[in-house]
Amino acid sequence: MKRVILIAIAAISILTASYIWFLPNTFYENTPGLSLMGPFSIHFMRDVALAFLACGFILAWGAWRLNREVAVAGATWLAFHSLFHVQIWGMRGFPFDSIFAFDLVAVIAPGLLAFWAAWGLTPSAKGVSHA
Question: Which of 58, 64, 71, 85 has its CA 20 to 30 A from that of 120?
Answer without folding.
Answer: 85
